[in-house]
Every structure is written in structure tokens, then in C-alpha cells.
Design goal:
The protein is mainly α. Helix content is 76%, strand content 1%.
Length: 302
């Protein structure tokens, strides 16, 4: 009988050890998610928050999908997220590969490149607002000194999104450098040495050795920087506040303004739920894309 109780206690031990982690997961992820869904299904605003919450079903979602401002925010998000992910990944990959070479001061440069990622996005926003300001910006001052016309970096609807992409790239690219550097360190140098003996150039080694072995790191990195770019709004809030004429209002900033500036908590909750769906779809798309490429390579090798 004693052995039976000890065996049962031993079988329950792994589950008991998971209780703290599951409690944190439920408290900080699942409960806020369910609460967000509950609010999105009711009519809740700052004027009615202390009163009775009327159940409205999917009316908030239908109103959201019919809102032209939300449609515009999706278009802005597409440009901002696409440009940010492309630049962050390209710049981060180049820097990680270059710093992985046996060059002088590579460790010091890695430490320097981490700094932008550790700086708060709000501080980054104020810094780039000073650089790109139309009237007293450092960049326009330099252009004028060279005899060139100043650019309306933050007030031109056709330029402002790309200005934000540059600022976000500076802030987020160091994470890609760190992440891909860890992946490069995991590759055995003997593989490169064998390829060099077989006559492979550095370019061929990069495309046929480095990229395939980095694929798991690339997938995770792309998923993370894409989700962060979709949810990113504090730098945009500081630099442009969504202007001019909503030209830089991304979906995440739209959600924030609906909930906390206009007081439409239900509409903001519905927008937040749609953002979660966007993140899941993008993450699933990345995984499917890379798996399809792996299957194509396997078929060609057969």
C-alpha cells in the first residue's frame, strides 16, 4: 500500500511542478484573453463602464470591419510591418554574418549593436523625432547645408511610414543580430572547412550551408519580429501620433486610440482580438512556407 502511494505521488510530481508555470500562464495570458473577448461582446465605454454592460454579440466586430479608418490602418500596418521585417532581417543578417568572421573588434561591435535594442522605444521615438523633424531636424539641416531641399519626413503622408520603418529598423535590428549570431555559433566550423577543401566559395557556403542550417533560427526570428512589428505602437505614438491625416495609424495604434483616447473599450477590444488573429495567421504562414521549401528540397534530392 505504501509503495502504491509513493508511486502515485511520483507520477503526480511532474504535474505539480507545472502548477506555478500554468498559474502564470492562466493569470497573465488566458484570463486577459478571455476578458478581452468578453468585453468585445458587450457595449463598454468610459461612460458606461460603471453601469450595466449590454450584450451586443458580434456587433463591435461588424462595426469595426465597416470602419474605413480601420481599413486604412490595415494598409498602413501592411507597409510598416512589411518594411520593418524586411529591413530588420536583412540588416541583422548582414551584420551577424560579417561579425561572425574573424575580424578585429567583432565582440566590441556586437556589444555596441545591442544598445539600440535595450533603449526604450519611447526614447527611440523622441530621438528620431528630433532627427527627422521638418522644422528643426538634424537631417534636414544637413540637407540644407549641402544645398538640397528639405524633406517632410513626418508630415508627408507618402513618406512618413518609411520614416517610421527606418526608426523601427534601428530599434529592432539588434535583436536579429543577437539571435542569428547565436545560430551561427551553433554551426560546426568543420563544415565550412570541408566545403572550402571541396572548392566551395564563401558565397556558395553561405547559400548552401549557412542558410539551411540557420533555418530554425530564421523562422523563429521572423515570427518574433513580425509579431512585435504588428503590435508596435509606442514609437509611432511619440513620433507622429498617427498623423498626418491617419497616414501613420497602424492597427495597433488604432486599437490604442479607440480604447484609451476615444473611450470605446469594446471597439478597442475587438481590434485587439483581430490583431491576435493577424499574428497567428502570419506565424502559421511562415511555418507553412518553410516546410513547403523543405519538402521541395527533399523531392529534388530524391
Amino acid at each position: 500500500m505504501k509503495l502504491t502511494l509513493e508511486a502515485r505521488a511520483g507520477s503526480l510530481q511532474p504535474y505539480l511542478l507545472l502548477v506555478p508555470a500554468l498559474s502564470i500562464l492562466i493569470g497573465f495570458l488566458l484570463f486577459p484573453l478571455m476578458w478581452n473577448i468578453y468585453i468585445s461582446m458587450h457595449n463598454v465605454s468610459l461612460t458606461t463602464i460603471l453601469g450595466e454592460w449590454k450584450y451586443v454579440g458580434f456587433k463591435n466586430f461588424s462595426n469595426l470591419l465597416r470602419d474605413p479608418d480601420f481599413h486604412m490602418s490595415l494598409q498602413v500596418s501592411l507597409l510598416f510591418v512589411g518594411g520593418s521585417v524586411a529591413l530588420q532581417f536583412f540588416v541583422g543578417m548582414v551584420l551577424a554574418v560579417v561579425l561572425n568572421q574573424q575580424i578585429w573588434g567583432s565582440n566590441a561591435f556586437r556589444a555596441l549593436f545591442i544598445i539600440p535594442w535595450t533603449v526604450s522605444a519611447v526614447i527611440t521615438g523622441f530621438s528620431f523625432k528630433f532627427i527627422f523633424s521638418d522644422s528643426f531636424g538634424v537631417l534636414n539641416y544637413g540637407l540644407e547645408q549641402m544645398g538640397l531641399n528639405p524633406v517632410a519626413w513626418l508630415s508627408d503622408p507618402g513618406v512618413v511610414v518609411w520614416t517610421l520603418v527606418i526608426a523601427n529598423m534601428w530599434h529592432g535590428a539588434p535583436f536579429t543580430v543577437i539571435f542569428l549570431t547565436a545560430g551561427l555559433f551553433s554551426i560546426n566550423p568543420v563544415v565550412y572547412e570541408a566545403a572550402r577543401i571541396d572548392g566551395a566559395t564563401k558565397i556558395k557556403s553561405f547559400f548552401y550551408i549557412t542558410l539551411p542550417l540557420l533555418k530554425p533560427f530564421i523562422i523563429i526570428n521572423l515570427i518574433l519580429i513580425t509579431m512585435w512589428s504588428v503590435n508596435f505602437f509606442d514609437l509611432i505614438l511619440v513620433m507622429t501620433n498617427g498623423g498626418p491625416l491617419f497616414a501613420s495609424t497602424t492597427s495597433s495604434l488604432y486599437m490604442y486610440r479607440q480604447a484609451f483616447e476615444f473611450g470605446l473599450l469594446s471597439k478597442g477590444a475587438a481590434a485587439g482580438f483581430l490583431l491576435i488573429g493577424m499574428n497567428l495567421v502570419l506565424a502559421y504562414s511562415y511555418i507553412r512556407l518553410f516546410r513547403r521549401q523543405e519538402r521541395t528540397v527533399e523531392i529534388r534530392q530524391m
